[in-house]
Write a structure and sequence with these properties.
The complex is a heterodimer of chains A (515) and B (114). With 515 residues, chain A is α/β, with parallel strands linked by helices. Helix content of chain A is 40%, strand content 17%. Chain A has three domains: 244 residues, 2-enoyl-CoA Hydratase, Chain A, domain 1 (Alpha-Beta Complex); 192 residues, Alpha-Beta Complex (2-enoyl-CoA Hydratase, Chain A, domain 1); 34 residues, no CATH class. The chains are: A alpha/beta (515), B mainly beta (114).
Chain lengths: 515, 114
Amino acid sequence: MGLKQKTADLKKRMREAVKGGGSKAIEKQKAIGKKTARERIIAILDRKSFHEYDMFVKHAGKDFDMDKKFLPGDGVITGTGTMSGHPVCIYAQDFTVAGGSLGWAHAKKITKIMDHALKLKVPLIGINDSGGARIQEGVNALAGYGEIFYRNTKASGVIPQISVILGPCAGGAVYSPALTDFVFMVDNVSKMFITGPEVIKTVLGEEISMEELGGAKVHSEITGNAHFYAESEEECFYQIKQLISFIPWNNEKKAETFPKKPPKTRQFNIDDIMPADPRQPYDVRKVIKSICDDSEFFEVQELFAANIVIGFGRIAGQTIGFVANQPLVLAGVLDVDSSDKAARFIRYCDAFNVPLVTLVDLPGYLPGIDQEHAGVIRHGAKILYAYSEATVPKITVIIRKAYGGGYIAMCSHHLRADFVCAWPTAEIAVMGPEGAANIIFRNEIKNAENPDEMRKQKVKEYKNKFANPYVAAAYGYIDAVVEPRETRSFIVHALEVSEQKDETGPKKKHGIPPV
Amino acid sequence: MEAAKEINTKMKKPSYKSLLVENIKYRTLLTKKYKEKKAYAPKDIKKITAFIPGTIKKIYVEKGEKVKEGDKLLVFEAMKMKNVIISPMDGTIKQVNVKVGERVTKNDILIEFN
């Protein structure tokens, strides 16, 4: 065979491989609004940048006549490419080939690209669309999952790991996304659960649809397993591209800087957003937008535990991780879910050199038997741990209420915030005036001729004396009291002077956070 | 993005509720999870409930029968395990709410004491 013939032979082999599970299977995939694995990769990466690896890998099944079957690429497509010109490693499970089931060779392709990503120190994007373990390959399929989980853990905090759920992801398979940094899901397309509706029905007699059990909405709003919710695959790919623009390529780099832009102050006027009465709601995201470049804020876990807001924005071109209490929802309290949400985000930012800006306005922790029994003690402790542990620049702006334990938890100086400023509207106190007056003046109120009058008077007295930023300022617990419109320049300056921040703690293998 | 739109439209006509934290009433929106939380009910020792959905395999007692703490009440199969449910106290059976072979869901009351 000459070169021409050999090249023709190669092309023929490639054509065979690219067919995947064949036209019928592809039709079926498209009928339910899903793209094929290769289409997905191409949609995410820069044009013509995808280079596929291991196209000719053969599956390893020997039993149950599997050796007679040909499974192109063994149901997974792997390779490298670029996003906005930067390299990434990527894999996509191909549901059209044996239902995207995971066998030994399939897993080997994934672990090879994972090792590659870790060695090259580039982000890893995994697109999940698989029926689960290939049962015919038995314990080898389990070994495959285990090898993937181990690598997810080793790569955690070193390279960004992104999971995109675009189909079923059930049983053990869910633990790879769970170990990664960000999980993307699409309504009606993504499904994640440990045990499916059928097993639940036969074992427990409870009936539920796949979508209600583990669809995108459920994981975005109720469980918090997903970080991004989209209504179509196109929207999901757009979200991935946006996220990628905000995060650094690995833990030794900083995120790419962009040209600085002023906030859109006409649309988001910082002086007009917040009611001075601490009992009135407002949307704290408007405050974030009034501070960051071009008023562009990319929210993470928007629907889950909405009483705390987390996400990325830029200040003077630099990526910032924002954490803010949201008075619009549940008065902005800390509870089990919001503590989990914030703590993980803080640890992400710390691992990837993203400075943290915390906006504080909370009445404290959510009271209730359900919260206590759900372990609000150990969950709430995660925020304290995450902030104390973080060594990236930490800037805190107390905009209104900062009462009690909530004040301490929201990156106070005591947890080693580098810069803490407060607005003149700040109330930094051991608790809200009503609660405090009731305890301190209990006897005066009880013995008064008109207890209600006396209570009102005592609350007023307490408010006048303590509901302000100046008591804390007198002790040096805040560095400055600034006008709202000075907030951005305060943060810009804080970032400038903390450029060389290099903090190291005592030597240890790792801490023991209240996971 | 779509989700954000949804929230924005919701915010045009927000249905604010009040939330009490340390004697202060805050005007705010509530989450779905918060609204759907169940009120706490203290455990009633006189009611034997199913701790998991399953099937009743055997019943050892009947109405009016006197039992001692530790006596077998019934066998309840769930997750392929046969669980022998024993009496948590000395007492008289007020009522047996299930039959052998019956499937029960979580928190169903199986047996009540006087």
